[in-house]
Design a protein that fits this description.
It is built from 4 helices and no strands. It is mainly α. It has one domain. The longest helix is centred in the middle third of the chain and has 37 residues. It is rod-shaped. The N and C termini lie far apart (41 Å). The C terminus is likely disordered.
């Protein structure tokens, strides 16, 4: 796997962990221990973090698709390794990405809507 793709996967994984931690904090009683203005900013912050996480996933998927096309024509020696590694990354991150979105309270989602409107 190329260094670029490795860095992209690392960034995707790290960001996913940060989103999970922030979401857990937003859902916890500890949230009430910080000023309301900070609470609002954290609720707004998670929305672009999730958007960026989704963009990274799309980029990774596109790189994997390009590698599959190349391997079909015999141009990519590492295609089978890339497919194997991408499946591992999807197994680790795919369902987690959905649960992060599903785990947000309506309060958090409403905060994100306010940021956009």
């Amino acid at each position: 796997m190329s260094d670029f793709k490795t860095r992209l996967l690392t960034e995707y994984t790290d960001l996913g962990e940060k989103i999970e931690k922030l979401n857990a904090f937003l859902m916890s009683e500890n949230l009430s221990g910080i000023p309301p203005a900070q609470q609002d900013l954290l609720k707004k912050q998670i929305v672009p973090m999730m958007d960026y996480h989704n963009v990274l996933k799309e980029r990774i998927d596109l790189l994997n698709k390009d590698a599959e096309v190349s391997s079909t024509f015999g141009n990519d020696k590492d295609a089978s390794a890339n497919q194997s590694q991408s499946a591992t990354a999807d197994d680790k991150q795919g369902p987690g990405n959905q649960s992060q979105s599903a785990g947000l309270s309506s309060e958090v989602k409403d905060g994100g809507d306010q940021a956009k409107g």
